[in-house]
Amino acid sequence: MNHRTRLDWMFLWCCLLRYSYLRLEKICLKAVLKAVPGFGWAMQVACFVFIQRRWEDDKKHMENMLDYFCDIREPLQLLLFPEGTDLTENTRAKSDVFAAQNNLPKFEYVLHPRTTGFTFIVDRLRKGDNLDAVHDITVAYPKNIPQTERHLILGHFPREIHFHVRRYSVALLPTSSSDLESWCRERWAEKEVRLRDFYSGEPRAFDRDGVARVPPCKSELRVALIKAASLLYWSGFIALCFTGLWLWAPFRLYFLVMVGVYMAQQKLIGGLELLEMSCHRYWKSMAADDGEKKKVLDGKMQ
């Protein structure tokens, strides 16, 4: 997905709510976000893929995470922003420098993608037989663009959000890393043209490229009920938490203990997602040892 604002991943939830399942989504994002109290801890529990954005540091961690996902065989949707950061005047200038150094065209509506992580993820998931397709998602904001969280706090929500989604099955993807890099760059060149046409046209809308619109898998009634239930639950949960902190000493003690536990585990272990992988490796090795012992025992009995 292109990264127009820092909030794109959040707005994509609206699309996934209608066309897929939110519980399947995991995001590849900056490691500093895991330290955000509450929010970052929840992302650790959800086993998001946190990266330092230095390939020499990220390669082994990403390999372990992807192998874990392949090993547990749980359905997975991994959201990746190959641009690495959101589109601003500063990041566009850096992208232009990269384009000049590598004899590439300058982009106005997207940044040049970093293809190393993308090709690694595709190769690793494909080797683990856990890759069904790559969805090429282009997002655009025709009315106003909320660039950061500050805009949401001030009430500047986007009046419209448009998504263009094209599915590429694994059979259509190139097999070599170099061809995958070229494939990814071609998709971004298409995004640049698609977004230029979007913002220059009236009314602003994506061309369907001759493909019929796919109906949502959930009805608007079901979506409305999910949103209403979520609003009621989280409003009640937050109110209960503040009431508990204000009135009940045991609740305050529990709160302090949990904050201490989360901060300590992150300091000592590095995050709950790492603890989850360590537990999985331990139980897997224990199961393998038990299997070997059983084979030896069966052999002796025979």
Walk me through the structure.
The chain is mainly α. 56% of the residues lie in helices and 9% in strands. It has a three-stranded parallel β-sheet with strand order 2-1-3.
Helices and strands in order:
Layout: H1 8-19, E1 25-30, H2 39-45, E2 49-51, H3 55-72, E3 77-79, H4 89-101, H5 115-127, E4 133-140, H6 149-153, E5 162-169, H7 177-200, H8 220-247, H9 249-268, H10 272-301
Parallel strand pairs: 1-2, 1-3
Antiparallel strand pairs: 4-5
Helix pairs in contact: 3-5, 5-7, 8-9
Concise overview:
It contains 10 helices and 5 strands; from the N terminus they run αβαβαβααβαβαααα.
For the structure shown, list the relevant keywords.
302 residues; mainly alpha; 3-stranded parallel sheet; two-stranded antiparallel ribbon; 10 helices; 5 strands; 56% helix; 9% strand; globular
Order of helices and strands: HEHEHEHHEHEHHHH
Look at the helices and sheets and give the structural class. Answer: mainly alpha
| Strands, count | 5
Main pleated sheet: 3 strands, parallel
Mean pLDDT across residues: 90
